[in-house]
C-alpha cells in the first residue's frame, strides 16, 4: 500500500487495511471489491465510493447494552465509544452471500470474536436479529472517513469477553439512562462517540431497546435509511 506514510500507524491496523471490502451502489447492489484502505480514504469517498458494513448491538439478559471504546491504535475514530462491534463483510465467498443477510451475519460473528473474544457458539447466526440498513457519510480526521451501507443487528446473549487490546480499549454494559447521560455530558467528560452510533441512537436505538424482546416487529428489512 504505497503512497501514504504508514510509519505513524499501528502495524496490525495497517495490515488490516489490505482486507477487501464489498463495494455497493446506493441500493446495496455489489459492484466490485476494494481494499479497506481505498474505501476509507476521503479522496475516494468524496468521489462516491461506498461499501457494505454492519453494526452489532449486543444486550445481556438484564437488557444492558455492551459498549466498546475503540483502541487508540485504530486508524479511523481512535478512542471513540461505539456500539458493541462495527466492521465490514469481506469480499470472500462466505461473506458475500446475501440471502437472509447470511454473509453479514458471518462477518459479524467473526468480528465479535476478533475484537471481543466472543466465541461463535455464544452468538449463533440465528441469534442475529436484522433490523434495517442505514447509509451515512462521516469524515474521521480529514484523510480518513466512512461511507457505508450499514446492516444493523441486535443480539441478546450472555457472553464471555476477552477484548483484543489492539481493537478495543475498554468495554462496559450500560442502561438506557446511562447512555443518555454519556451523550449529555460529552462536552464535560471529553468523550467522543462514533458518528454512526450517534445517528443510530438519535433516530432508532431507544425505541428498539424499549421493545428488546419483540424488536423484529419494528424491523424494516427492505429499507435503506439515508442519514
From TrEMBL:
Family under the similarity heading: Belongs to the IPP isomerase type 1 family.
One GO location term (cellular component): cytoplasm
GO MF annotations in UniProt: isopentenyl-diphosphate delta-isomerase activity; metal ion binding
Transmembrane segments annotated in the record for this chain: none
Involved pathway(s): Isoprenoid biosynthesis; dimethylallyl diphosphate biosynthesis; dimethylallyl diphosphate from isopentenyl diphosphate: step 1/1
Protein name: isopentenyl-diphosphate Delta-isomerase
Domain Nudix hydrolase: 49-199
Pfam families, per database record: NUDIX
Reactions that this protein is recorded to catalyse: isopentenyl diphosphate = dimethylallyl diphosphate
Matches recorded under NCBIfam families: IPP_isom_1
Keyword Metal-binding: yes
Keyword Lipid metabolism set for record: yes
Keywords: Isomerase, Isoprene biosynthesis, Lipid biosynthesis, Lipid metabolism, Magnesium, Metal-binding, Steroid biosynthesis
Domain of life: Eukaryota
Enzyme class: isomerase
Entry's Gene Ontology BP terms: dimethylallyl diphosphate biosynthetic process; isopentenyl diphosphate biosynthetic process; steroid biosynthetic process
Cofactor entry: Mg(2+)
Lineage: Eukaryota, Fungi, Fungi incertae sedis, Chytridiomycota, Chytridiomycota incertae sedis
PROSITE patterns hit by this protein: NUDIX (PS51462)
EC number annotated for this UniProt entry: 5.3.3.2
